[in-house]
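Schema walk-through. Below, the input block comes first and the output block second. Nothing else is stored per chain. Lengths vary across the set, and this one has 168 residues.
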Amino acid sequence: MSAVKLSAQILLRHVNDPEQVAAACTRIQNGMNRLDAMIRDLLDANQVKAGGSIPMQFEACRLDEVAETVLNDLSLVGEVKFRFLNENGPIDGFWDESGLRRVLENLIGNAVKYGKHDSPITVRLSDFGETIGISVHNQGASISALDISKLFTAFQRTPSAIAGGQKG
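--- output ---
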């Protein structure tokens, strides 16, 4: 929402500058897409908590293209630098593209939030034949083994995350 608000302010100040207007509109669209994804994540979490399941739509798509699109969208928002490593070329498969996008946005968002702000975030895709690897790496502090066991507990944060001052 911050990117959307800032972009709207830029629009108001640069109404006669087509480049500024186009860039601000793109940031607004991307910000609203991320907000929509966050709302869907909350609804999905509540659905699972209530004993339901998350619907998935599997279709042919390229994982490398999904990752590149997510990185391009996120690179418009801030000054974070990304490195995309894909040694295998096109990675075709049948996946829930929307779900993959949301997972990548979440992992990369956490890497941005908790990583060193002056170092790039590396996203790597690896094709091992029967399995695909996706890794997101930042130069932030490591998560302790004890804290790793708590990562997916609802409404829990690690002591280092709390100390870092970032909102969860």
